[in-house]
Write a structure and sequence with these properties.
The protein is mainly α. About 55% of the residues lie in helices and about 0% in strands. It is built from seven helices and no strands. α4 packs parallel to α5.
Length: about 140
């Protein structure tokens, strides 16, 4: 298994292929907007919807970086949780889930075309594994 295949496998196990924990897709499957908007008690807690927004933002940014496109939608870490408005509307929630799935597919596609040399360039592979997404290639 080469490095790209390993990264793709890791990406799959966090999204839809069960490993030692429940991945993203089955964990949110069947949730309503009301459930996705529920906030646990605590100052630093986030809703499921906010966490999905956060994931979408960083995956979209990573895709842009891997494709060599300039990323102009710069948000700080906290702003990413509010990428889409949380409405008590199941159609809106479903659209956010579909966006998350589309971004995952795009990330898989672009990563599968990334060479080992590109992964090693600017320590991209290390940044992918650590989750610290590069601002440019």
């Amino acid at each position: 298994m080469n490095r790209t295949d390993l990264l793709l496998k890791m990406l799959n196990t966090t999204f839809d292929k069960e490993s030692w924990y429940v991945p993203f897709k089955p964990a949110i499957e069947g949730l309503t907007a009301e459930q996705a908007r529920w906030r646990p008690v605590g100052e630093a807690t986030k809703t499921i919807w906010e966490n999905v927004n956060h994931l979408i933002y960083y995956k979209e940014r990573l895709v842009a970086n891997l494709e060599g496109r300039e990323w102009t939608n710069n948000l700080d870490g906290d702003q990413t949780f509010y990428l889409t408005e949380q409405l008590n509307d199941d159609k809106e929630w479903i659209a956010v889930v579909e966006l998350a799935e589309m971004v995952q597919r795009r990330l898989r596609q672009v990563l599968s075309k990334t060479t080992i040399e590109e992964l090693q360039q600017n320590s991209l592979e290390e940044k992918l594994l650590q989750g610290s997404w590069p601002s440019h290639r």
